[in-house]
Amino acid sequence: MVGYIPKKRQLIVKRNSTNAADAGDIYLFDLVTQSWTLGSDKVPSADSTASATNFAVDWNGDLILGYNTGTFAKWDDSSVSQSIDIETKDFDFGQPAQSKNVYKVYVTYTGGTSQNCNIQYKKDGAGSWLEFNADLDDTTGNQVEAALNPSVSISNIKSLQLKISGTCASTFEINDISIVFRVKGQR
After folding, report:
1. Smallest Cα–Cα separation from 39: which of 29, 31, 47?
2. Beta bridge partners of 29
3. What confidence tens digit (pLDDT) does each residue in 139-185 have?
4. Whether residues 126 and 177 fall in one domain
5. pTM of the full predicted structure?
């Protein structure tokens, strides 16, 4: 089942309409950012005796879904505090064949109450996740910049991958991520 949210230019794909274990899970594709998100238990699911309708857009441009016996629910994407697990792609900085040294990672973000997000990195798409010297744990609700130094030197790498996980506030937003690196000369 696929639905379109015209107000946000997003597509929702219902993961499974028949399996009760994941019937409320969705994939959300944002047409603006060209990104996918997996959401668990984000839409009401049908019980074992009834089916859900297809998604529809109501008179107000809101996405709705009918389920069970005539009950309708509007798509609601309001923020809640929850656990997250975000893994970026491997960044090769446009030069996959050359070795690089990474010196620092800057993350500009907005935290919030009970914020406790951990940020880690992996070198060359292999091995275990390694720690930075700090976490994304600002609870002021203001936009802040975290300057992260690696716990182990990041040198002679081809690519770098980041992972953000933990409990994030409902106001958590990542504004940007900047990586300070230098391409090593070839001999």
Report:
1. 29
2. 11, 36
3. 888 899 999 998 777 889 999 999 999 888 888 888 999 999 999 87
4. yes
5. 0.67
Closest CA to 85 of 170, 175, 173, 163: 163
Enclosing domain of residue 90: 82-183
User: And the tokens for 58?
Assistant: 């109501």
- Exposed e or buried b per residue across 149-162, where buried means at least 16 C-beta atoms within 10 angstroms of its C-beta: ebeeebeebbbbbb
User: Does residue 50 share a domain with residue 113?
Assistant: no
Last residue of a domain, one of 50, 74, 98: 74
String of DSSP letters for 40-84: SS-S----TT-----EEE-TTS-EEEEETTTEEEE-------EEE
Q: Using CA atoms, how far apart are residues 118 and 86, in angstroms rounded to an integer? A: 10
**CA-wise closest residue to 52 among 42, 37, 62:** 42
Among residues 39, 74, 109, the one where a domain terminates is: 74
Of 86, 83, 92, nearest in space to 119 by CA: 86
Q: Which two tokens stand for residue 51?
A: 């089916």
